[in-house]
Structure formats: structure tokens, C-alpha cells
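Worked example 3. Consider a protein that binds flavin-adenine dinucleotide.
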Amino acid sequence: MKSVVDELEALLGPNRTIHSRDALLAWECDGFTIHREPPLAVVFPESTTEVQAVLRILSKNGVPFVPRGAGTCLSGGPTPVGPSVVVELARMNRVLDVDAVDRSALVQPGVVNLDLTTHVKHLSLHYAPDPSSQSVCTIGGNVAENSGGPHCFKYGMTVDHLIGATVVLPDGQLAQLGTESGPRPPQGLDLLGVFCGSEGTFGICTEIRVRLSTDQPAVRTLLASFADMTSACRAVSDIVGRGLVPAALEILDQATIRAVEASVYKAGYPEDAAAVLLVEFDGEEETLDEEAGQTRQVFAHHDALRIEEATDPRERLRLWKGRKGAFGAMGRLSTDLYVLDGVVPRTKLVEALEGIYAIGKKHFVVLTNVFHAGDGNLHPNISYDGRNTEETARVVQAGHEILELCVKLGGSVSGEHGIGTEKINHMPLMYRPQDLDVMARVRRAFDKEGLCNPGKVLPNRSACAESQKWPAMIARVLGEDAAR
Ligand SMILES: Cc1cc2nc3c(=O)[nH]c(=O)nc-3n(C[C@H](O)[C@H](O)[C@H](O)COP(=O)(O)OP(=O)(O)OC[C@H]3O[C@@H](n4cnc5c(N)ncnc54)[C@H](O)[C@@H]3O)c2cc1C
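Given these inputs, the predicted complex is written out as C-alpha cells:
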């Protein structure tokens, strides 16, 4: 009997169907390296029709699958849970159409976020959602995670920039979500909004129409350093409290500053400061003068040690270089990095950070903080050596307590990195069983057989029964001999 891998190879050819154990190691995890599990096979479709054909083969054989973009997810979203086939969308990377008048673009899911902005730069347009991973992450992954980024404080998350999407459902059928006239028509259900943020558990989007934004005439970037974190956080609340709406409000703590300054992302941040606050405004030149002036007043009121203001694009890039490279710079501190993603109300930032540092101390972990302060979206980073199981256990426990703290302070367990496998057991901290059940029912409406990215987002009460089916499934995918 033909195995599933044989069928996939017959469809895509051997170069686009990987199943050798060594090669599969490249797909055993995403940026959440604590959870590793290689897939049974990886396939590389290049069109909507091919994605449909792949999912039909998998659905006919009852084989689970995992959609994957660039694998930069930080919550285990594209990592298999149990035997499954990864559907890698990186080769679907074409910008299909740009409408400069309507300011929209139709893209395949594997288009890299920053490449889209580069593609439309000559039209003075850009794609606004800008995750710090934007030079590698894909628009398909951004849709699945409803990704944010430094400039989402003013411009909103991915969902606010979506117009429509073609989705291949787990049984291979096509669904068109949203309409050409906009994502939220006056009639019908907003299924595009439901799909965005579903973390690859509802199907695979193969074409996405996004809104493009016009470039602002001018940008002003300021960086202030402070002797303590409390002053930096209070400055954030005051800036927002004055009614100012910066495009971005980002904080880096001292440990992050020092790691950045020791790395290739060196940006000239003051290493003696306890925190730096990066604030950016965009708009008409005249309003920027007023906004920058008011921000300087706030900085002074909170005893800023030093204030810098970028006067040309090169200076602006320098000020951003350290922030954008902060996660990469963590490689200076240890072999592994656990990037957390919790949210607290902006007014609770000081309390949250005090609690986070205390948790770090209690568990003897190396903790740094860099975060989207305007949104109260914290990214505590724990550097550790993943080969040391005892240290890893402490890291996981510290992460758990940090997320508990965020919820206790009225926040949430994720601002933008999703739930994946990392935070699946934290969902009950935020939702009652009956609310989780409603989410499971919506999921079943898209994926009746439970084949699409199982083991993610929603705690699964029947996981043990599911695992009993695994040996037979492995034999179906690889063939009896290879499975032995
Ligand atoms: C250094 C660094 C900085 C980051 N900064 C930010 C940030 O500022 N803001 C932010 O929000 N995130 C950030 N992230 C997290 C990550 O980059 C985003 O979640 C991103 O959207 C993931 O895109 P990806 O292409 O890598 O998707 P993947 O990691 O491959 O997949 C992510 C999820 O999307 C699903 N998926 C992928 N493609 C599709 C598709 N076509 N259809 C359906 N489902 C699909 C997968 O199954 C998975 O569940 C950062 C990550 C890193 C490593």
C-alpha cells in the first residue's frame, strides 16, 4: 500500500517532500526552544491548488498537519505535537498585486513582512505592522498570530490591516474571508477577524489582501535615559496621559542595554542608565515640534539623565538599532533564550517590573526586560543553558510565575506572541471552562476532525486517548517498514 509520504512525493516531487530524520531536525522547534518535536515529514507547496491537494491527502488519511512560515514564533505554534506533517509556506513568497490607488496589496503567505514594505517603498507606501522579527517573519505567520510590533501602539495590530484572505480549510476546501470592499461588511459574520490570531488551527491562508499605509511626511525619534526603571515607566504614563499619541514607546532595561552595547547591535545607549525610553512620533513637521517639546518636558520632569533626538534618518536608525537587535544581542548572555510575552495595564508597569525582578531573583535566573511600554506589553527575557535540565526547570517555573503575576495585575498571558504550546496551561488563568468550550466549538466549525495544528492554544482533555492512535498513524505516513 502507498504511504502518505509516497502520495505527497507523487504530488510535489522528492525535492519538495522531506522525510529524512536528519533533515527534519530543522523543523523540530520555533523560537520557543524548550519544546522540541520533529515532524514526520515537511512539504513545500507553491500554490493554493497544491496546498488544497496536500490537505486532501492528509485529511483522507487522518494525518494532522502544522502550517509553518519562518518559524520565528515564540510560543511553539509551528512545532508539532504528536506525529504530523509540516506544511512549509516559505516558497509561496510572491507579491501578487499592488493597488496604489486603493492602497492595498495581495500577497502569498510566505512574503516576508519587511519585503512587502520594500516592494511598495517607491509608492511612498508601507505595511504598518512591524514585529521586531520583520526582516524574517512572514505575513502568513503574522495573520495567524495577529502580530504586533513597536509601531502598533498607534497603528494597531495585524487584524487592523487585513482586508481579505483565501483560506484552505483542513479538508482541502476553499473559503474566502473578508470582501474586496473591506473585512467587516455590514452583513455576515466577521470570519476574517476570527481567523486572524487562530494560530494556524483553523486552516492555511494562501492569499492575503492587506491594507497599505501612506508614509508620514516626517518622523521624530527621541531617546531618554533614566537612573531608575520607575521614572522611565512613569514618563510613559505621563506622555500618554497628556494625550500624546506616539507611534512607538519602547523601554530597555540596563541588562538589555549592556548586552546590546556589547554586541553588533551597539547603538551608543548609555550603559550606566537603569533604563532607556525610545519614543517616536510621526506626522507633519510642525506637530512634531510640539509633540517632541512636550515629551522633553516629561523627560525632564522625571529627571532624565540624558536626552537624544534624531535629526536625520541615519541617527534614527542608530537609535532603533539597539531596540530592533535586542533579542539577537541576548545571544551574548547564554546559549538559550526564553522570551516571555505578558501584558499589564500601563499604570501597573512599575508594580509588574518589581514583581518580575523579584521572581527572577527567587529562581536565580538571568533576566532582562525589553518591552512595548505604551501597550503595557512586557517581554521579560530569561537567558539560560538549555542543556542544563535543572536550570531549564527553574526558567519554566519563573516564566509561569511571571504570567500569573500579569493576570493578577489585570493583564493577560499574551500580547502578541500567541499561546501555542507554551501557554496552553495558562489559558485557564484567564478563561472559565465554559469560555474555553465556546472557543473549542468555533475551532471545530473550521476543523471538524481536529487535524489542523492539534495540541495548540486550547487545553485538550482527550490528549491521552489521542496518543494511543499515534503508532498506526506513523505507519500510515511513513509506510510499515520505515515506521519500525
Ligand atoms: C527576534 C524576534 C522578535 C519578535 N518580535 C515580535 C514583535 O515585535 N511582535 C510580534 O507580534 N511578534 C514578534 N515575534 C514573534 C514572531 O516573529 C511572530 O509571531 C510572527 O508573526 C511569526 O511569523 P512566522 O512567519 O515566523 O510564523 P511561524 O513561526 O512559522 O508560525 C507562527 C504560527 O502561524 C501559523 N502559520 C504560519 N503560516 C500560516 C499560514 N499561512 N496560514 C495559517 N497559519 C499559519 C503556524 O502554524 C504557527 O502557529 C518575534 C520573534 C522573534 C524571534
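Take a moment to read the result before moving on. The mean pLDDT is 94. The chain has four domains: 4-88+455-483, 95-214, 218-328, 333-427.
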